[in-house]
Amino acid sequence: MYEIQPEIHFPLVKRIFSVFLFAMHRLIGIFSLIFIILLFPGKSTGGGGQHYPNGAEGFLCGIAPDPGLYLVNYTTWYTSSSLRDNHGNDLKKLDFHLNLIADAPRLLYFPKFKILGASYGIYLTVPIYHANIKLKAGGFSLMNDSSSGTGDLVFSPLILGWHFQEILHWVFSFDISPPSGHYDARHPATTILSRNIWSFMPNLSVTWLVGPGIDISLKFLSEFHTKNHEYRTLFGQKAELEPGAEFHVDYAVGLPLSPDLRVGINGFFYQQLQDDRINDKTIENDRGRVFAIGPAARYSWKSWAVIFKEQFEIWVRNRPKGNISWIKIQHHF
To answer: What per-residue confidence (pLDDT) applies to 12?
Structure first.
């Protein structure tokens, strides 16, 4: 016969082991917290001052429109669940989620007179948004914030467009974004489209019409920023942030399938050129970079045009990696 051994309970040992596991879990969380602070000491979403929305322009962006008043409405949806470090590696120990829905109506006006042989125009854009951002590390919630409101408006007092016969077209614009949006440094979701700084953005758009209506379009834009005196670190401490200069390139190649329908590829490249500075201390190895590519289509009808774009981010450094969807509607009054 087999002898049945009595079951032995070790409640104290089990309790000690449970406490040990809980302590190790919290310890890992603390190290993860220290890691994220060291890795991203000055920002949560990359680009300490970026105002220009990557990939906003595409087909035929270098062709200045005819004189008149235009409404151009940009609607975008950005989603990301991955943060990338300085080497492009996914920070898998960090549970990160970012969702942004924004709508930016723009009034664009070109009078009939010209300056230096160029069409002259001005515009004003006022973005509205809803954003949600979450960040956890080792069980600790570092961020969990949602916000809806207005972002920093953008205007241009100077747009100049040249047409070189019917092949090459240029548009130069000097854009300005003042600190006018719903900014609260204690709520990270408000800081995505509101930066509490002045940004100055000279840019040049070029469209080259080649072959049977094929267009190659590029927009080059640089950003220069003032200081944010109301910035807060991940610890919640008030600080002074001086964002580094940034450079953007939007691109598109379009093929006409009919007089009204154009399809092709589009995307963008972004590179932060200078390090951010917090309280006059340089944040090294933290410059953002990203390249994106995806399909696009444009349909025009009478005084209307609708553009659909999808952009998939790759080659990402020091910022979130995600996907962007665009719907752009243009109307000539």
So the answer is: 57
